[in-house]
Each structure stands twice: as structure tokens, then as C-alpha cells.
Design brief:
Oligomer: single chain
Shape: elongated
CATH topology: Glutaredoxin
CATH superfamily: Glutaredoxin
Number of strands: 7
Strand content: 15-25%
Number of helices: 6
Number of domains: 1
CATH class: Alpha Beta
Strand order of the largest sheet: 5-4-3-6-7
Largest sheet: 5 strands, mixed
């Protein structure tokens, strides 16, 4: 093959790679679909900061917001913490449980974060990372909305807004009628 054709083919072979990368940059990284939606949520047992353990078996029949967070996750985890606490206080008497899972953090910093935001809902550390892996966690914050039949109905990547909380809890409470 003549040298001039080789020189032409090399730049042309790079074009598909550049096109693929450019296409990827147009996509929302939060829109990564979870293969767990409408499937049974992975079972777990979580040691709690306030003592004791909480297992998914104990949560059967309840609506669960499983929120993965970290104290170093600023500003998203900091912004959503008061919203999660408000949702817990508003809906816990209707069978909704907010459960926090702290990831890749020190216990001291996690406890300070919980004190700062007055978290009263159950929280525990994912010390081994198994729970994060089982749920296919990409990062923090991420929240899984689990229905009363223990299926994942929605996964939210990033900071939760009040609108998202109200909408998704409403869907699950409406489905429970």
C-alpha cells in the first residue's frame, strides 16, 4: 500500500472514535438506566449508627427510600439531607421508611453530618461496600424507591428535590391503595 494512502487512513480511522466520544458528551450522566427497576430489591442487613441492625426482611410491606450518602458529598448530600428528614417525618406514619446508607466515610464524619442535619431516620455504614455493589451504585447521592412488594420502582441519581420525593412517594402510596 502506498505511503500516501496509509497517511490518509490513519486520520480517517480516528473519526469514528471522535464521533462516539462527542455523542457521549451529549448524554446526561444521571440518565443511566438501572437494570434493577421493577425487579426485587437486593436483600441486606445493615448495622445502624444508633445501634442494632436492620434487615430488609423487617422492611417487607413498607415503602422504602434507600438513600446512599457521604459527609464529603457536597453540596448534593448536604442539600438533600433536610428534604429526606422532612419526608421521613411527613410519611413515616403511612408506612414509608427512609433509610440512609453511608458510604466511603469515617464514622466520626458521618455522625457529625447526621447531627448537623438532625437526621432521625435510621442510618448505617456500608463498611464492606457490599450493599453499594448489590445496588449497582455509581456514586453519591443515589436513592432507590422500593415498593411494598420489595421491588425497586425508581432510582434517582444525584440530589433529590422535594418535587422528586413527593412524586415518587405519591406514586408508591397511590399504588398501595
Amino acid at each position: 500500500m502506498p505511503v500516501s494512502i496509509k497517511r490518509l487512513l490513519l486520520p480517517l480511522s480516528v473519526l469514528p472514535v471522535i464521533a462516539l466520544m462527542a455523542y457521549g458528551l451529549t448524554k446526561d450522566p444521571k440518565a443511566i438506566p438501572s437494570p434493577l427497576i421493577r425487579k426485587p430489591a437486593p436483600a441486606f442487613e445493615l448495622g445502624l449508627f444508633e445501634g442494632g441492625r436492620l434487615s430488609s426482611r423487617e422492611l417487607q410491606g413498607k415503602i422504602v427510600l434507600l438513600n446512599f450518602w457521604a459527609s464529603w458529598c457536597y453540596p448534593a448530600c448536604w442539600n438533600e439531607a433536610p428534604r429526606l428528614e422532612a419526608a421521613w417525618r411527613k410519611y413515616r406514619d403511612r408506612g414509608v421508611v427512609v433509610l440512609g446508607v453511608n458510604v466511603q466515610d469515617t464514622e466520626e464524619k458521618a455522625r457529625e453530618f447526621m447531627r448537623r442535619f438532625g437526621k432521625t431516620f435510621p442510618n448505617g455504614p456500608d463498611r464492606t461496600g457490599k450493599l453499594s455493589i448489590d445496588y449497582g451504585l455509581y456514586g453519591v447521592p443515589e436513592t432507590f424507591f422500593i415498593d411494598r412488594e420489595w421491588r425497586i420502582s425508581h432510582k434517582h441519581v444525584g440530589e433529590l428535590t422535594t418535587d422528586v420525593l413527593e412524586r415518587e412517594i405519591g406514586v408508591l402510596l397511590g399504588a398501595a391503595r
